[in-house]
Structures are given as structure tokens and as C-alpha cells.
Amino acid sequence: MYGCEAWTISKQTQRKLEATEMWFLRRMMRISWTAKKTNDTVLEEAHTTRLLISKIRKRQATFFGHVMRREKLENLVTTECWKENAVGENNEKSSLKA
């Protein structure tokens, strides 16, 4: 899931991710792929739900919020204040030398 924040998830990709998630779950529970068990039955036996897609969507939303905040006031205040301090410190040091 490394870098999933930038993934574009189509319906086909979503189906493949869900199938992979179920394959992992079946492997962990040692359920053969030839066993005639539905995905719902496997999920009930594991006492879980499908989590992979929801985790990816949550990470994408968090990343989107991070990117949107970058352009807002928080970034301007912190970067502009830093620039002013850096310029002011240089001026003070040069005035002390003179």
C-alpha cells in the first residue's frame, strides 16, 4: 500500500484489490481456493469486513487535505515569517560587523 495516496483506482482496479484482499484472507485462514465458500462466508468466519479499499480511500483523503493546506494561509504564514526572519538575521549580523 506504499504510495496508495496517488493511485487512480478504477472499477477494474478496485475489483482486483478486493480479490487480492480475499485471497490474502483465505490464505491466512488456510481455506483452499477450491473450497466452495463464498466471500461473505469467509468474512463471517474471520469476524471481519473488507478494509483495504476503505483504508486506501482514507489515505487518499488525508493526502488531499495535506496538499490543499499547502496552498492556504498556514503555508504562507510559516514560509513568509521564515523568510523575514532569515533576512532580518542577516541584516543584524552585517550591522554588528560594521
From TrEMBL:
Q: What is this protein called?
A: Endonuclease-reverse transcriptase
Keywords assigned: Endonuclease, Hydrolase, Nuclease
Keyword Nuclease attributed? yes
Tree of life domain: Eukaryota
Q: Name one GO molecular function term.
A: endonuclease activity
